[in-house]
Amino acid sequence: MPSLRREVQRVLDELVGSGAETGLQVAVFHQGALVVDAVAGVADSRTGRGVTPETPFFSFSAGKVMTSLIAHLLVGTGAVGYDTPVVDLWPEFGAHGKATATLRHVLTHSVGVPAMPRGIGPADLTDWSRVCTAIADAEPRWRPGTETGYHSFTFGFLVGEVARRATGKPMRLGRIGARPDEAPTTFGWVGGGGSYVYADTATGTSFAMTKNRLTPHFDTAQRIADLTTAGIDPPA
């Protein structure tokens, strides 16, 4: 889709040129193929280093909405309940006084393990088993359910491991256990500072946009997402 790629690049260049944005990345997959891989602007204003597709961008929380949705879907199917003790599915999690923790505590950020345990660094984050083992053995900052603190780093692992153990299957978007063509729904979710991700199972499209100018709105994300939707599925 060269026309879509050119149009996305044009808009990115315009946004940077106008000063609305500093640096951006956009990736679009359609039917498993990368059809847009566009960047614009600078990654480091001090040195002028330009953005590339490999530039790491801050994009926290873009997955929390969908992670939570998986948990709610599992509750809806009866696979787990909000007040199910985490240890019923994940016995190791009960270490150091966390045996009273429930899925409700996990979802409300009150389970007491908001930070990564000592010894877990960026290089470990792709090792799911290692991270979950460390979290399970962590001493809570507070007794589960007694306080609230944003679990920015651990939320995905906590909910994801509960879901994995509840189903024994990898998680994906749509109805749990359904074939991909059974859930023709578009899911969109936002991240910190204006980043945005969506997946449309009806058209086989997935979209991600990250940027390094943090804003309290999603104007850029909406514009690029609308452009992508029109390019993938143009009106008749």
Give the topology string: H per helix, E per strand: HEEEHHHHHEEEH
Output the radius of gyration: 20 Å
**Residue share in helix:** 25-40%
Task: Count up the helices.
Answer: 7
**Average pLDDT rating:** 87
Quickly give the structural class. Answer: alpha+beta
Q: What is the 3D form?
A: elongated
Beta-strand content: 15-25%
Poorly predicted ranges: 173-178
Note down, in words, how this protein is organized:
With about 240 residues, the protein is of the alpha+beta class. The protein has seven helices and six strands. Helix 1 (about 1-20) packs antiparallel against helix 7 (about 220-230). Mean pLDDT is about 85; it is low at about 175-180.
List the helices and strands and how they pair.
Layout: H1 2-18, E1 23-30, E2 33-44, E3 49-50, H2 64-77, H3 86-89, H4 103-107, H5 128-136, H6 155-167, E4 186-190, E5 196-200, E6 205-211, H7 219-232
Helix pairs in contact: 1-7, 2-6
Essential attributes:
236 residues, alpha+beta, six-stranded antiparallel beta sheet
Task: Summarize the structure in short.
The protein has helices at residues 2-18, 64-77, 86-89, 103-107, 128-136, 155-167, 219-232; strands spanning 23-30, 33-44, 49-50, 186-190, 196-200, 205-211.
